[in-house]
Amino acid sequence: MEFRIAADELKKALHRAQGIVERKATMPILSNVLVTAGKSGVTVTAFDLDIGIVSEHPAEVVKTGAITVSARTLFDIVSFLPEAQVTVKKLPNNYAELTSGAAHYKIVGMAPEEFPKLPKDDAAHAVALSGPTLLEMIKKTQFAISNDETRYILNGVFFEPREKGLVRMVATDGHRLALVERELAGDFKLKSGVIIPRKGLFELKRLLDEAPDAECQLGFAENSAIFKKPGLSMVMRLIDGQFPEYQRVIPKEGEKQLLVRRDKLFDALKRISLLSADKSNAVKLSLSENLLRITANNPDLGEAKDDLEVAYRGGTLTVGFNARYLLDVLGVLETDEVSVELGDEHSPGVLHLPGDKSFTAVVMPMRV
User: Fold this and answer.
1) pTM value?
2) What mean pLDDT is reported for the chain?
């Protein structure tokens, strides 16, 4: 195998692989990428047995073939090459030789036959969709995904096709929930929703961030999801299990509703949470007519309070929340105002856009 390729092209492929390859893999080959030179160019494949990505790149192929080498080592080398082009050649005993200008490397590889096969995506029913819309849905739910590996069902986002071409994405970690519903025209041919794993979702977000407006497709086959855009395809294993009945967590319309400037609330929570307890990030929200007071108290540091003007007419109420959970929600909204619904000191808080619940966040209260 021998080919000549632009260093930036190879670097782009290897950069995509970094989030997938296993750094401390029990199988050493999972730390590698499979580099294949064919008649039409070069493909670079990364696969950790759960997520696989195949990236296609133009190259001048002298001799077809394949080799698998360390993804990290190859990426580091290509990042510092002196010339715009690099020649890659396979040597005996699965060594790879890289030449760029006066720089010359010879690195250890492994037999390409040992690299695991990616699941076939022939059975997937791919649907063309809007990249910016899918990217927005990921950004508005990813912060609520659970990191608790013992609750593996919550370690991803629930992807649920609805009627009239609508798709709902939901994430929850038991303390908060984020739900977004958007139109993604097309029939995904799913009997029910599927759970896209956290790592796969973050890699999908990264690929969308590269070129949000590029044509893309998403499909599902058996226990896998397949994402495609020009020159690239990704397959990931879905989480096997039943997502909780999230509708039960979302309260009916709250008795107490206030309208507040999103940026003002965000800044006030940031300021006041500086004196909240380190782990709980606890703050108190106290409501009275057209006034919201945010307070925090830390025996080791002191106390803080801030008052905000809000549109609110109702009884007084004091409720505690984790400030970080509220900040995560406010951070993904682009509107000037946000609507907050509250019940009592034991009820969850619900945040959404004024008059629009296509994005809804639920935050559980806490004792302060």
Assistant:
1) 0.92
2) 94
